[in-house]
Amino acid sequence: MVDKIRAAGGEVYAITSEPQYLADQAHEHWELNFDNVGDPHQEIPRVCNDRGWLTLYANRGDTAFLQGGAEWQVEHPKGFFQPGVLALTESSRILYRWRSVPSDKNLNGTAARPTPEHVWGSLETALVAGDAAGNAAHDDSPEIDMAPPPRLVFIAALIANGWFMGVKSFVYSPGVEPTPTRFKKAFSRWPGFIALWVAAFVFLPAPWVALGLVGWLAWIARDIRNTLGRMNVQEEIGTTPQPDSRVA
Question: Quick one: CA dihedral 134, 136, 138, 140, positive or negative?
Answer without folding.
Answer: positive
